[in-house]
Amino acid sequence: MTIETRHPRVEIEFCTGCKWHLRAGWMAQELLLTFGNTIGELALIPGKSATFIVRVNGDVVFDRKDHGRFPEMKEVKQLVRTVIAPEMGLGHSDTAVKSAAGGAAGGAGGATGATQAHEEKKADAVAAPAPVTPAAQVDEDDEDSTTHDKECKTCV
């Protein structure tokens, strides 16, 4: 018996040794609540080596190792939406994208100057990558550390 893959397919691969099960499950739940039946299939894929990767239709949209941090939920929703439903609005999760794309003054909502400045400031904060703590400064007992320069202690 062959099981046919449904598209769009969203995958969240996570490190079981790092105990990122709950983070992956929460993200999957949020994506299902946001996109409903627009997602054809959502898979949680147990992995290793401090992996946390989000894929849509097999293409990586976010890799924790490339960014040096976990994705924000708002960011994941925007990345997934861009692939599976570009015309779909995300409500408050769209704010930074519209502001970063040239300001909100002419866009939906017709923001005032003060509001536009505030939204642009928020967009800059979202766009700036989070600082990464050197591995030597990370507590070895921190199972949810976002800084894995090498294999995590349970992933060897």
UniProtKB/TrEMBL annotation:
<feature type="compositionally biased region" description="Low complexity">
    <location>
        <begin position="125"/>
        <end position="137"/>
    </location>
</feature>
<feature type="compositionally biased region" description="Gly residues">
    <location>
        <begin position="103"/>
        <end position="112"/>
    </location>
</feature>
<dbReference type="Pfam" id="PF10262">
    <property type="entry name" value="Rdx"/>
</dbReference>
<protein>
    <submittedName>
        <fullName>Uncharacterized protein</fullName>
    </submittedName>
</protein>
<feature type="compositionally biased region" description="Basic and acidic residues">
    <location>
        <begin position="145"/>
        <end position="156"/>
    </location>
</feature>
<dbReference type="InterPro" id="IPR011893">
    <property type="entry name" value="Selenoprotein_Rdx-typ"/>
</dbReference>
<feature type="region of interest" description="Disordered">
    <location>
        <begin position="94"/>
        <end position="156"/>
    </location>
</feature>
<keyword id="KW-0676">Redox-active center</keyword>
<dbReference type="InterPro" id="IPR036249">
    <property type="entry name" value="Thioredoxin-like_sf"/>
</dbReference>
